[in-house]
Amino acid sequence: MSVPPISPDDVFEHITGTFAGVVPKSTWGETAFFYNPGMALKNGTYFATIKEKDGDNDRASNLDREGSWRLNMGVRKETFVSLFGPPPKRPGKGQIIEGPWDFAMSDQIMPHPVYGWMGWLAVISPTLSTWDQCKALIGDAHERAKATFEKRVK
């Protein structure tokens, strides 16, 4: 018996319904979530995205497959390190990070294939079995964004 995936709409509703100061913006086949209470900054601080199709510089997850989409989360460095050790080196332009991960595997939390070097995490089509961990990581990313935002508006 397989565990059904949650939907991008579920993630959207969770983020916008749970966290204060969130501004969603949709472009290029993805919805980005910024922390920007009161629209104090032009864009705010980016902390999560829902990506629903491959892009020119990001094809490693094979998101053009039926039913595939990816949740991306910009967590605190300590969180990334606790899960995967030090972030990998920045990849060359148009390349992906080096490591043992299968970036097309569904329902596995792993470094982001392009932005893992910045401490971003990704999971393709998470199911209910990983959703609680994803929710905690989204909360961590939101906290990181709040701290960055506060430094930027001082």
Folded structure, characterized:
The termini are far apart. The model has no long low-confidence stretch (mean pLDDT 95). This protein is of the alpha+beta class and 154 residues long. The longest helix is centred in the last third of the chain and has 26 residues, at 128-153. Helices cover 29% and strands 20% of the residues. A hairpin with a 2-residue loop joins strand 1 (22-27) and strand 2 (30-35). The relative contact order is 0.20. It has a 6-stranded antiparallel β-sheet with strand order 1-2-3-4-6-5.
Question: How do the helices and strands line up, and which of them pair or pack?
Answer:
Layout: H1 8-18, E1 22-27, E2 30-35, E3 45-51, E4 70-74, H2 77-84, E5 110-111, E6 120-124, H3 128-153
Antiparallel strand pairs: 1-2, 2-3, 3-4, 4-6, 5-6
Average pLDDT confidence is 95
Estimate what percentage of residues fall within beta strands.
Answer: 15-25%
What structural class results from the helix and strand content?
alpha+beta
Mind describing the biggest β-sheet?
A: 6 strands, antiparallel
Q: What is the straight-line distance between the termini?
A: 52 Å
- How many individual helices? 3
Please give the number of β-strands: 6
Strand order of the largest sheet: 1-2-3-4-6-5
Q: Name the helicity range.
A: 25-40%
Q: List the secondary-structure elements in sequence, H or E.
A: HEEEEHEEH
Which spans of ≥5 residues are poorly predicted at pLDDT below 50? none
